[in-house]
Amino acid sequence: MSHAIDRIRGLAFWSGKVDPQPLAGGITNSNFLVEDGPRKYVVRLGEDIPVHNVMRFNERAAAMAAQAAGVSPALRHFEPGLIVIDFIEGRTFGEADVRADLDRVVELVARAHREVTKHLAGPALGFWTFHILRNYLHALERHGHRLASDLPRLSDVAERLEAELGPTDIVFAHNDLLPGNFLDDGRRLWLIDWDYAGFNTPLFDLGGLASNNSFDADERDRMLAAYFGAPPDDRLRRRLQAMIVASLLRESLWSMVSEVESKIDFDYRAYTAENLDRFERALAEFDAAGA
């Protein structure tokens, strides 16, 4: 922690002396609030994490494109392993906030899908859900993870979900639509944290939005109707359901890999258990609906 604070204090970006304050909640990066005169910034520290498809050149490009598209705060400074963005005075959403403000949330996600790509410059990563899942499964097998005996079944589930999705549109997606990545400043919503951004099916973001925020069937239909501009049919509902399961499998495998890879002080085992439970319940619903 002291090394990180010293590094932040030493940035030439500041106009004077600063006193970085740790921010809670980061499970991929270490985050700090910095006041520099009248301005406030968030400093995010994190190296490349290839096993998670997190590469900081891609995060920078995504954050700059999201800023230009008007959906994310301004990026003010970047260097390897460190990014400085404007601090937004506002309310960080929880699950209930996302559900209560569903129409504005979906409009923001749809606008990001439409507009961020237009401003993207230079190399950019793909984030094909099923490659991510396969890569995690390979990594867990190499590590001899404590749940290694479950991996063949999880691999079979991933194959079934990919087949159910079928052909799809591709957008430059956020791929991490946790409620805490939505901020409300009282006038508008912001979407932050572009670590996992990459080209993917829009249904992964929509599936993640639904799974991360405990949408019921009516809220899923409202989300799909708002995003696509027409009420969903049964086929679209089924494809969304597949991506809800995929999003929970991805979060579970992410946590399992983080158990053995991450150096951040966080209870990944408990997070694994929580997400595997949500995954199994979503998978049971998916299987029952297809029976």
Automatic annotation (TrEMBL):
Classification via Gene3D superfamilies: 3.90.1200.10, Phosphorylase Kinase, domain 1
Domain Aminoglycoside phosphotransferase: 21-231
Highest taxon listed in the record's lineage: Bacteria
Protein name from the UniProt record: Phosphotransferase
